[in-house]
Amino acid sequence: MEYEQLTPIVEELTKVLEGKASREDIEQQVSTYANVYRIEDTRRIRDAILKKYGMGPATDVSFVTADHVQKKIADLLGNENRVDILAKVVYVEKKTVTIKGTMRHLLSGTLGDETGTAQFTVWDGEHCELEQNATYMFKNAYTKKWNDRVQINIGNQGAISKENVTLDVSANRPAGQVSAGVKMKIADLTGSEPSVDLEVKAIVAERKTVAIRGESREIISGIVGDETGTAQFTVWNADGVDMADGCCYALKGAYTKLWNDQVQVNIGNRGTVEPIDKDIVTTSAPVIQPKPAVQAPGEKKKIGELTGSESNVDILAKVISAEKKDVTIKGEPRTIISGVLGDETGSAAFTAWEGGSLDMETGCVYLVSNAYTKLWNDRIQINLGNRCTVTKEDVEISAAEPKPIAYSSSVAKICDLREGIGSLTVSGKILSVENRTINSRGEDKQVWSGLIADETGKIQFSAWNDFGLAEGDAVRIENAYIRGWKGIPQLNIGDRSAVDKIDDTFGDLSAAAASQKTVGEITRTGGGLDMSVTGTVLDIRAGSGIIKRCPECKRSILSNECLTHGTVEPVADLRMKIIIDDGTGAMGAIVNRDVTEKLTGISLSDAQEYAAENGESSVPKLLGERILMRNVTFRGNVMSDEYGPSMIVTDAAPEDRDINAEAEKLLGEVQEALM
Amino acid sequence: MNAREVAFRTFAGEIAGSSLEIKGDDEAAPSYLITPLGLMLNRVFVAGKLTEKSMKGTDSEPIWNAVVKDVTGNFYLQAGRFQPEAAAAIADIDEGEEPYVGVVAKIRTWTNNEDRTYVNLRPERIVRIDEDTYNAWLLDTAKDLWRRLNLVRTALTFPEASVKELQEKGMTESEADGIVRALDHYDRPESQRYAKMLQSALRQILPGKDIDFGLPEDASDFRDEIQPAPQQETLPGSDDSGMDAFDQKEFILGLVEEFDTGSKGAPRDEIERKASEKGISADAVETLLDELMNEGQIYEPNLGFMRKI
Ligand SMILES: [Zn+2]
Questions:
Q1: Between B6, B137, B220, which is nearest A585 by CB?
Q2: What residues 245-274 of chain B have any CB closer than 8 A to a CB of chain A?
Q3: Per-residue DSSP letter, B138
Q4: What is the pLDDT of residues B233-263, one digit of tens each?
Q5: Which residues in chain A have Cβ-Cβ distances shorter than 8 Å to B5?
Q6: What is the rounded average pLDDT for all residues in chain B?
Q7: Residue among B7, B216, B230 whose CB faces A581 most closely
Q8: Rounded-to-integer distance, Cα A638 and Cα A141, Å
Q9: A473: closest CA among A502, A516, A450, A514?
Q10: Between A155, A194, A667, which is nearest B206 by CB?
């Protein structure tokens, strides 16, 4: 940031911090925040520096846990990092303790409000006086749980001010787990309440033992009701909870979810069930009140943008044709509407599965919300299911000619290709191609195969027709499909594929960087050609070091016997079998002699000399000392088998990274979040 | 697929706070220690200074114990006959220099009869590393920790997140599964604790930077180390009874109950007399009785007589 932009806050801080910090100090700190932590908002820089001198707003470190709020004692959970509490000092005493060898004066005792009481500690008791029976606001307190009781702590970020109010202290339970929820009636539940309090009658309550993630657990489930409706419920931990049919209970801190469009009430870890002395009249029968699902809006798309895999999409389109049909689905008669929808980008077939209650007029425009799409014989189908709403819109749309979309294959980059994908469009440049004749089912067939690349990676292709592919051509291939071989995806260009030449925007790809992946990504995709991965070498395995090879077939042999070539004079070679792990996954790698020598600085002849002195079995340890725990970038082809992926390394180099720059970037991110 | 378990980069502090273990269904299935941030640990990659080592067992079957210290705490290593290479490597390392080491290890836990879980590491590989390699580990570990904190923050935006909901937020299945289990078992993590680990790591990597997150460095973080002060100072209500104020109050409350034999209540002077035998002054008794009244534990049904509520 420019110095001029920073001058005003430097001046302001110099004034405010007079006697505490020099202008030079302040300038330096401001510049650190601006240029090292890269914080652009000058007000935040100012606050951060003020805070260092104990003058600014306190740090909010509650970015993960509870927000900074004022709470009643009964609502404290024991994990608040920053909470304001208005409470009466029920009891206080001074204490002197030693902490790590240093004497400290503390204040401790009991705080109370109308909801309960809790123990508290003021950690700087030397500069603090608290009057018994007076009420104070404790700001920026934090809480911990100790022997299942919440403890309130006022640390060096805290502030205490006397308040001129009287509080009735409840003799209630000490602050515990339960957080109060919003009081509601069943009919008002939407299925998304995070914390709700209900007074209900248990219409049916059944205790069951279920397996949850392999652990057996007692739950209570059934149906509860109040004057407004009924709902299914589950108490997820039935230890110490007893519920009987026909009795009434207060459910506190429950949360709700939607299940098949019906609201379910859940009492989890943070909820409680208490019997109440009331008789609640429920609606006569345990009828489940269906609540309309609160549906998130779908992604807005034009028809031309649909890929056939949308699960929740909103489309504004004109009905080009529509027809009601009576069909039988799973034995039940149903009315559906099917036809064609269009907009300025294209058209597609649609089916409204709840067509009985719906009218869709030809020539009218509708907003179709929460639809989903599928591919059927390479064509997009728009489906209007039971979550879907259809609204007539008073707008004009000039729909594209009502022709079905020829096919719509999804567009993919080469690095994203994996086994089993069909119907896709890939653009790239042909790096090599050769024409062979193979024999398939007794017939001679010609195949054009080679390598194609884009800026994200390379892949082998096989074309089963002559598309006139030539080295150096930039092409778009539509309707190709992927087959895998040992985890390495291969692009197939078949009878239904189309190949067009396009402008070459790729430049020279032959020397381009290999496709950079994490081990986790490679594990998921299976493998590929010329990939690059950076990870830590975490093991060097058996089979590493000096090995013997048959001079004829180059296979590694244990003695002087090759299975194919009999007794031979073996040739010595150096290699490593290692494990690369980057924290997202682990994979094997085989490193040849050249790369091993380059990475470890130990040549085959060095290794042989070392072996002559210490035995051949000591060589892996020697190599390991040079490479274990190091971060290395590897390049090579990756194949997969049942033990996961493994790379045949063609090149490797120590990871090229600037630790300080990365650490400063992380520092900036953390500072940003903490401020 | 029988893919190898990932070695997670983890600080000692995160492992130390972990007590949830899930065992595989059969012998061959891996078991995992789940940290409060939802990391499912089977294998770890850790680093630090090797500060202590000791040998047990026999010369032919040695068992090596070692302590490796990172910026957040200690890792406890044990290598025996099933970790011959690591055991030999520990034997070769001179702990006097406190060299940096990198360790790849499997997690082992046991729980004592007080239900406390201990974690130690069975090293597969341990080698000396230089400070740059240690710093690279610190950075990678800090980055991973920061990522996890943010994943947990995402998970906490749901009332009770499911694996599926978290996967829709871009987490992998095992990240989501770990976080759901962790929140279920540990509840919300203490973010300060982890922010302090990040601070310690960044301070080590960037020593010139004077890094200060402004986190409270409160005495309560060291609760286990708090000792009662030696009784050299006279504190209000402390006298020379050898009891602290809490004990004294309990004692007085006991007297109120003990002497409440008649219809009027426990006589105040009896309480004072009994208390003075324990070295509690009359003034202190008065203060304590006042406090007990204010706390709603006793009342004065008749002047000079006390009764428990
Ligand atoms: Zn041979």
A1: B6
A2: 245
A3: H
A4: 223 333 344 456 567 777 888 888 888 877 7
A5: 586
A6: 82
A7: B7
A8: 54
A9: A502
A10: A667
Exposure of A147 by Cβ count < 10 A (0-12 exposed, 13-18 middle, 19+ buried)?
Answer: exposed
Residues A496 and A538 in one domain: no
Flag whether pLDDT at B294 surpasses 80: no
Q: Which of A393, A428, A448 delimits the end of a domain?
A: A393
- Residue A585 within a domain: yes
With contacts defined as CB-CB under 8 Å, which chain B residues touch A585? 3, 6
Q: What is the CATH number of the domain that holds A154?
A: 2.40.50.140
pLDDT at B227: 40
Answer yes or no: are the C-beta atoms of A531 and A517 closer than 8 Å.
yes
**Is residue A398 a part of any domain in this protein?**
no
- A171-192 residues labelled b (16+ CB within 10 A) or e (exposed): eeebbbbbbebeebebeebebe
Identify from A266, A629, A632, A665 which residue to disrupt to test chain B contact, counting B C-beta atoms within 10 A and taking the largest count: A629
Top-confidence residue, A51 or B202: B202
Q: Minimal Cα distance from B200: which residue of A?
A: A667
Query: With a cut of 0.85, is the ipTM above it?
Result: no
Least confident of B20-34, B36-50, B170-184, B238-252: B238-252
* Domains of chain A: total: 6
**pLDDT at res. A58:** 45
Cα distance between residue A545 and residue A596, in whole Å? 9
Residue ranges of chain A whose pLDDT lies below 70: 1-2, 36-38, 51, 54-68, 98-102, 145-148, 170-181, 211-215, 259-261, 283-297, 329-331, 376-378, 400-409, 419-420, 440-441, 486, 510-514, 675
A400 within a domain of the structure (yes/no): no
Burial of A218 (0-12, 13-18, 19+ CB in 10 A): middle
pLDDT value of residue A54: 64
Contact A150/A175 with Cβ under 8 angstroms? yes
Whole-angstrom distance, CA of residue B284 vs CA of residue B291: 10
Which stretches of chain B are assigned E, i.e. beta strand?
7-9, 20-22, 32-34, 40-41, 43-57, 62-70, 73-79, 100-111, 117-128, 226-228, 266-267, 298-302, 305-308
| CA separation for the pair B31, B21 (Å, rounded) | 7
The highest-level CATH class for domain B245-308 is: mainly alpha
Which tops the pLDDT comparison, B136 or A207?
B136
Is residue A286 assigned to a domain? Answer: no
Q: Is B25 on the interface with A (CB under 8 A)?
A: yes
CA dihedral B188, B190, B194, B196 (to 10 degrees): 170
CB of B309 within 8 Å of any CB in chain A?
no
**Predicted pLDDT at A466:** 87
> What residues of B are in contact with residue A628 (Cβ under 8 Å)?
102, 125, 127
**A340: domain range?**
299-393
The CATH code belonging to domain B7-131 is: 2.40.50.140
Dist. CA B225–CA B117, nearest whole Å: 20
A162 DSSP β-pair partners? A136
Helix/strand/coil for A581? strand
How far apart are the CA of A278 and the centre of ligand 1, in A? 90
CA distance B35 to A7: 46
Cα B157 to Cα A191, A231, A334, A480, distances in angstroms: 15, 25, 40, 41
